[in-house]
Specification:
This protein is mainly α. Helices cover 71% and strands 0% of the residues. It contains six helices and no strands. The longest helix has 25 residues. The radius of gyration is 15 Å and the shape is globular.
Length: 133
């Protein structure tokens, strides 16, 4: 949130908070694995930017982007439902890709690393990730 505020980009609290909850609360699920978290957010970001380019920014376009994002993640075998909110954030706020995408990738990567570190800090808990890729 601090980095997003400094570079004047929309705060990614909704999608990343949901990602954190899944990583820490259900670390064994396929949608919690690093590939799904990082690639899912990237795919939905691409969908969000494509929808904005094709139809502009509106609530209907945001809903369309979320649905298309879910379909694209399913086809790519990278299920991560919180990433749909990334597409919505992009459509409704139209952030600059040059700063938003690195912020998104860095944040998703930090969530994965935090999940990995937390799984080793707590004894007798399932190890995260179940697989890296």
């Amino acid at each position: 949130m601090a980095i997003g505020s400094v570079i004047h980009e929309p705060v990614l609290i909704p999608p990343l908070a949901a990602s954190a909850a899944i990583i820490h609360g259900a670390p064994g699920l396929p949608l919690a694995q690093p590939r799904s978290v990082i690639v899912g957010h990237l795919l939905c970001a691409a969908v969000g930017y494509a929808v904005v380019a094709a139809s502009g920014s509106s609530p209907w376009a945001a809903a369309l982007a979320a649905g298309i994002g879910l379909a694209v993640m399913t086809m790519a075998r990278t299920p991560h439902s919180p990433a749909c909110a990334t597409a919505v954030v992009i459509v409704l706020n139209t952030p600059r890709p040059a700063t938003f995408v690195p912020l998104l990738v860095g944040s998703a990567g930090l969530l994965v690393l935090a999940g990995w570190a937390a799984s080793y800090a707590r004894p007798r808990t399932p190890r995260y990730p179940a697989y890296w890729w």
